[in-house]
Amino acid sequence: MDRKYFLKTTCAACGVTATLAFLDGCSKQSQVNFTLDLSAPANSALAHNGGYVIANSGSVIVIKESTGYSALSLICTHQGCTVNFTGSGFACPCHGGTYNINGAVTGGPPPAPLTKYTVTESGTTLTITG
User: Fold this and answer.
1) What pLDDT score does 19 carry?
2) Quick check: helix, strand or coil at residue 100?
3) Which three-class secondary structure state does DSSP give residue 26?
4) Which of 21, 36, 86, 115 has CA atoms 20 to 30 A from the CA of 49?
5) Nearest CA to 56 among 27, 41, 36?
6) Which residues contact 102 (CB under 8 A, 6 or more apart)?
7) What confidence category does residue 78 fall into, taking pLDDT thresholds of 50, 70 and 90?
8) Which residues pair with 73 in a beta bridge?
């Protein structure tokens, strides 16, 4: 085997492997399925409009709105940093990306909005999936 063929084959294999690993990481990042008990003291902030809870090991925010509840990923769509909730939106501490309260990009490098999840309320239980 000559050197040129070896290098070309090796680089192609590494590129395919890296691409597959990146795509697999992205798909895992956005998959959630958990519940919150609204009667638990830890979730008492969800009893009033504008209240919020950080859940799912710090990767999801659940916010109480006048019409129900919303849930968004706290993972920046630029490079995967955890964004901070500012009360009126979200800010990424890594590269300055910003999002509004609905998760839409308002500035910086993020290529897409924050992932929105489905919130289903049944009695005192919220189920967040997506």
Assistant:
1) 40
2) strand
3) helix
4) 115
5) 36
6) 70, 113
7) very high
8) 60
Q: Which residue has the tokens 């009126």?
A: 88
> Measured between alpha carbons, how far is 84 from 121 in angstroms, rounded to an integer?
25
- Backbone φ and ψ for 55, nearest 5 degrees, come out as -135, 180
Given a contact cutoff of 8 angstroms between Cβ atoms, the answer to whether 43 and 124 are in contact is no
Mean pLDDT of 37-52: 97
* CA angle (87, 92, 95) in 5-degree steps: 150
Which pair of structure tokens corresponds to residue 121? Answer: 């309320």
CB 90 within 8 A of CB 102: no
What is the Rg, in whole angstroms, of the alpha carbon atoms belonging to the chain?
19
> Scanning the structure block, which residue is given the tokens 């839409």?
104
CB count, 10 Å around CB of 99? Answer: 24
The predicted model scores a pTM of 0.77
Q: What is the sign of the dihedral through the CA atoms of 45, 50, 56 and 57?
A: negative
